[in-house]
Specification:
Elements lengths: L1 E4 L2 E7 H7 L8 E3 L8 H5 L3 H13 L5 H11 L6 E5 L2 E5 L9 H15 L7 E6 L3 H10 L5 E8 L5 H8 L5 E7 L2 H13 L1 H6 L2 E2 L6 H17 L8 E6 L4 H11 L6 E6 L4 H8 L23 H9 L8 E5 L2 H13 L6 H13 L5 E6 L7 H8 L7 H7 L6 E4 L2 H12 L4
Parallel strand pairs: 5-13, 6-7, 6-9, 7-8, 8-14, 10-11, 10-13, 11-12
Antiparallel strand pairs: 1-2, 1-3, 4-5
The structure holds pyridoxal-5'-phosphate (PLP).
The site of pyridoxal-5'-phosphate has 15 residues, from helix 11.
């Protein structure tokens, strides 16, 4: 698989390079040089999830990873199902929250971990994944890399600023997963990550890698569950399928649109946002005018400058898709709550992110169409909000019960770069 940088087409890389680098020059995103449609989509839809997914990924990645090896990586990554739940006659929720951290980010993070581990196997020194989190991503990354040889993970997060349960989900693993609670806010954590990448001692000495959400391996993994959703629909409901995708950085939507470019017969997409509505306003007016980010109940979508958007533009620009297949809508806080209650009325318990996608789908769905909205997180991950809005108790699923009783292993440090740097060398170079 060849990829090129959307900011500088002369910057071309192979799949292994794109996975290891993440971003190209000038912070440009890598994009496939060519997306060839799959030959036998019908045949693929008849296959089981893991087998189908490794064939799709092998078609995309090509010779860069041997197909038997790739099948093994996919099997290791996709160890949990992605079922569709019927909400009413023409509406389904694609539940992407049955992984170890109960959110769709498990799919992408686990496949990325598998790829990085294979592609770095020839390195003498371990690589270090350094990342800052305000909750979700850190947990997915920590679980995905836990126990993987030759890779250390360091996660920085703001002390006392994430929910205790969220914190337990990634600070109790131990082994190659190191967590640091900084006495500061999320922005300061991000700043520390940036300073580390700018510091040659740390960047080169510890072989830093960011493993962030713009990594191409994550997107490719996410393509697979759109096929999985389709394969579970009754035949008579496959003709006019509309996906509604709750969007923040727009990675999930990009993956869906790549699935369509590969020949999966999706009719159209709805990009659903909360009041951080840069894209819906842009889609209406043609003007890109990001506002300051506002805090909402659907906090994983509190993004006003979505970093994957240039990839969506590229899918249109290079003629893979027509702009008419995308509409965009934003849902405010009041309607988010209303949508959660409407879903409750349909007998389905949901959380704010999925509820936004459901609401936008409902506003858009026409007679004869079948709608699928993406359930990106388990309701228990947003337990307080869900209990407050719905007035019903939410029970904890097993992964949360398991970690709730364990001891957190984080180091606590002041937000001082030199102190952090010493700590990193102490924990990662103790054998040197
Ligand atoms: C990350 C996240 C989103 C947004 O996904 P993008 O790919 O960034 O658009 C939506 N819902 C939940 C629960 C998330 O964690």
């Amino acid at each position: 698989m060849q990829l090129f940088n959307l900011k500088d087409a002369s910057d071309t890389v192979s799949y292994p390079e794109a996975v290891k680098k993440g971003l190209g020059k000038q912070q440009g995103l890598y994009f496939p040089a060519k997306i060839e449609p799959l030959e036998d989509v019908e045949g693929l839809l008849a296959k089981p999830f893991v087998e189908r997914s490794s064939q799709i990924l092998s078609h995309l990645i090509g010779d860069d990873i041997d197909s038997d090896k790739l099948a093994e990586l996919v099997e290791n990554a996709f160890q949990f199902p992605a079922p569709i739940a019927k909400v009413n006659d023409n509406t389904y929720c694609l539940e992407l929250f049955h992984g170890p951290t109960l959110a769709f980010k498990d799919f992408g993070a686990r496949f990325m971990a598998q790829c990085l581990s294979t592609l770095s196997a020839d390195k003498k020194d371990p690589i270090t994944i350094l990342t800052a989190t305000s909750g979700d991503t850190g947990a997915a990354v920590a679980h995905a890399f836990h126990g993987i040889e030759n890779i250390n993970v360091v996660i920085l997060y703001p002390k006392g600023k994430i929910s205790p349960l969220q914190e337990k989900l990634f600070t109790t693993l131990g082994g190659n997963i190191h967590t640091v609670a900084l006495e500061s806010d999320f922005d300061a954590c991000q700043q520390m990550v940036k300073s580390s990448f700018d510091d040659p001692d740390v960047r080169d000495g510890l072989h830093l890698n960011s493993a962030n959400s713009i990594n191409i391996s994550r997107l490719l993994a996410q393509v697979c569950y759109y096929f999985e959703a389709f394969s579970q629909l009754p035949e008579e409901q496959r003709a006019e399928v509309v996906f509604s995708v709750p969007s923040g950085n727009f990675g999930n939507l990009t993956a869906g649109m790549i699935a369509k470019s590969l020949g999966l017969p999706i009719k159209r997409f709805v990009a659903s946002t909360n009041i951080n509505d840069t894209v819906p306003r842009y889609w209406e007016s043609g003007e890109w005018l990001p506002d300051p980010t506002k805090a909402t109940m659907s906090n994983a979508m509190d993004v006003s400058q979505p970093n994957n958007w240039p990839r969506i533009e590229a899918l249109f620009e290079f003629g893979y898709l027509d702009k008419s297949i995308l509409s965009a809508d934003s849902v405010d806080e009041e309607y988010t709550q209303l949508a959660m209650k409407q879903l409750q009325g349909e007998g389905y318990t949901s959380e704010p992110h999925a509820a936004i996608a459901y609401k936008a789908l409902k506003r858009s769905l026409k007679d004869g169409e079948t709608g699928i909205f993406l359930g990106t997180a388990h309701p228990a991950k947003f337990r307080e909000t869900v209990e407050n809005v719905l007035g019903q108790p939410i029970s904890l699923p097993q992964p949360l019960v398991d970690c709730a009783g364990k001891e957190g292993l984080s180091a606590e440090l002041p937000a001082d770069y030199e102190v952090l740097k010493q700590h990193l060398f102490k924990i990662l170079k103790s054998d040197a």
